[in-house]
From TrEMBL:
Xref: InterPro entries: HATPase_C_sf (IPR036890), Sig_transdc_His_kinase_HWE (IPR011102)
Claim: Phosphoprotein is one of the keywords in the record: yes
SUPFAM superfamilies membership: ATPase domain of HSP90 chaperone/DNA topoisomerase II/histidine kinase
Name of the protein in question: histidine kinase
The organism's place on the tree of life at top rank: Bacteria
Organism of provenance: Pseudomonas cannabina
Length: 227
């Protein structure tokens, strides 16, 4: 009789554990689905905005397709970088390395400075900004010349009052650049992305040696909402 009671209690215990596990699995699946839904909606909103803005700045359908495809590839590379870290964070140096790979191994892009870890939303924004900077450099700036070079410098200012991340994109060795030739959609996208999405400030200088973009972003990296 006692053995039968023990067997029944064991069966009840196993059943209770299985039920708890099923509940936990359902909660986990629901959480993953909600997270996936949120990310997909954000990505679609980004793509929709890129399509609209690219269309407004394109003179023809082929021009739209070239620009839009390039921006989609940049967004895809950013997602790949985040996937490798399970959407936890990425390194700014890794984003710059992606540009080096796109430069066909010519070693014209250099990264210097502090190691910077970016959360997902900031990483995606920085990827798009770096893509636009490179596109402008290839079309009008330093990378339109074989002798041209780009240096990306990062510095983390950790003062007690206004800690901030400083990133500079410095071009040298290219042809003289006139402001009117580069102040198109890409120029506006860079400024707006830094100012609106990263709550920072972006400034550009047209020097005799080349274009210099200076970006100052509040730190630590605390987005208003996760992707």
């Amino acid at each position: 009789m006692q053995q039968g009671g023990n067997t029944e209690r064991l069966a009840q215990s196993i059943s209770a554990r299985l039920e708890r596990q099923q509940i936990e699995d359902r909660v986990a699946r629901a959480g993953l689905l909600n997270e996936l839904n949120h990310r997909v909606k954000n990505t679609l909103a980004t793509v929709q905005a890129m399509a609209a803005l690219t269309a407004n700045s394109s003179e023809s359908l082929p021009a739209f397709r070239r620009s839009f495809d390039a921006r989609l590839h940049a967004l895809s590379h950013a997602h790949d970088a985040l996937t490798r870290t399970e959407w936890v964070s990425t390194q700014l140096a890794d984003l710059v390395e992606q540009l080096r790979e796109q430069d066909a191994g010519l070693h014209r892009i250099t990264f210097k400075g502090d190691p910077i870890t970016l959360e997902p939303r900031t990483s995606l924004t920085f990827s798009m900004v770096l893509h636009e900077l490179m596109a402008n450099a290839v079309q009008h700036g330093a990378l339109s010349s074989a002798a041209g070079r780009v240096t990306v410098t990062s510095r983390l200012n950790t003062g007690p009052h206004s800690p901030a991340l400083s990133v500079e994109w410095t071009e040298t060795g290219g042809p003289p650049v006139v402001a009117s030739t580069v102040k198109g959609f890409g120029f506006k996208l860079i400024s707006r992305s830094v100012e609106r999405e990263l709550k920072g400030k972006a400034e550009v200088e047209f020097l005799n040696t080349g274009i210099v973009w200076s970006m100052l972003i509040p730190w630590p990296d605390k987005p208003e909402s996760d992707l």
